[in-house]
Design goal:
With about 325 residues, the protein is mostly helical. It has two domains: about 70 residues, Multidrug-efflux Transporter Regulator, Chain: A, Domain 2 (Orthogonal Bundle); about 190 residues, no CATH class. Helices cover about 70% and strands about 0% of the residues. The chain is built from 15 helices and three strands. The chain has a three-stranded antiparallel beta sheet. The longest helix has about 30 residues. The protein is rod-shaped, with a radius of gyration of 33 Å.
């Protein structure tokens, strides 16, 4: 195109797809400057205005402000630097949108009350420091006063959600649900009671060494029984219960008798809280761990089997 050609504002609008009003606005802001004016004062633009306005349109569609755009087209700022800054800003916006999506997805699945929805929204907007304080408060409510032995340090780590820097949508949804669940006083009390019961068992055993607690033993024995198709009422369950109570008697340093079976049944009933299974499942999702097997089926089996055989004695 001949460099001497000048365009009226109407011709420039037709070539760029922008409205006359928009071009006049950009011109008034100094983003695209007329190359000349007619004797009547009408603006005339050179061929470079077409390319300049195409760039402006692209930058506007990317969300850049007019002041920044003017600096770019005037070469006061490099396009690369501005693009990097804008990309970083978009990353923040994308993160916010993903958190909002996580809240809405969780809400669609759970149908919360308006109060629960507001709480989920607040939890989703927590900063990293605020998330850490929430986690610390939760763990403190479960472990405070129970000492600093390695076993408890490991238990704290296993109950700590660590959302990665670039979480998946599934991890974000799990975090929102975990954060709300962690505020449940019932879950906190249930987990605290489980830790205290385990501490009592280790004290009763007279050993300072880490050992499986009775809940873990019941899980292992009952899971194998369920996988083999043995029902709690089956005579085959007698052997499973006998092996379970024998292991628990060794751990607790207690005779394998009716008292132990009643104590074991009470312990398992206290641990059989569906919120705990959900808590562990969410932690695994957030931390990228393998999905855990739910504890409830094994505890249900053990509680029923122990109850049937304790009643016989």
């Amino acid at each position: 195109m001949d460099g001497g050609i000048l365009y009226s504002i109407g011709e420039l609008a037709r070539r760029t797809g922008l409205t006359v009003k928009t071009i006049r606005f950009y011109s008034d802001r100094g983003i695209v400057v007329p190359a000349d004016r007619t004797s009547a004062g009408y603006r005339r633009y050179g061929p470079d205005a077409v390319a300049r306005l195409a760039l402006v349109r692209t930058l506007r569609e990317l969300g850049l402000g007019l002041d920044v755009i003017r600096q770019i087209v005037d070469r006061e700022l490099t396009l690369g630097d501005v693009a990097a800054q804008h990309a970083a800003a978009l990353d923040v916006q994308i993160g916010i949108l993903r958190l909002r999506r996580a809240v809405l997805t969780a809400a669609a699945r759970r149908r919360p009350t308006p109060e629960e929805m507001a709480r989920m929204h607040r939890l989703a907007r927590l900063t990293e420091d605020e998330r850490r304080r929430l986690t610390d408060d939760f763990l403190t409510s479960v472990f405070t006063g129970l000492g600093s032995r390695d076993g408890y340090a490991g238990a704290r780590r296993s109950m700590t959600p660590e959302l990665p820097d670039d979480p998946t949508d599934e991890q974000l949804e799990a975090w929102v649900e975990w954060a709300e669940l962690s505020l449940d006083p019932g879950l906190r009390a249930s987990l605290r009671r489980g830790v205290e019961d385990h501490a009592d068992e280790m004290s009763d055993s007279g050993s300072g060494l880490p050992r499986p607690d009775v809940v873990a033993l019941a899980r292992d024995h009952a899971t194998a029984a369920v996988a083999s198709g043995i029902t709690p009422e089956s005579p085959l369950a007698d052997q499973v219960v006998a092996a379970l109570t024998a292991d628990c008697a060794r751990v607790l340093g207690q005779a394998d008798d009716g008292d132990l079976r009643r104590r074991l049944r009470q312990r398992l009933a206290a641990a059989n809280d569906p919120r705990r299974d959900r808590h562990v499942h969410l932690l695994a999702l957030i931390n990228g761990w393998p999905p855990p097997k739910p504890l409830a089926p094994a505890l249900d089996w053990s509680i029923t089997a122990l109850g049937l055989r304790t009643a016989r004695r």
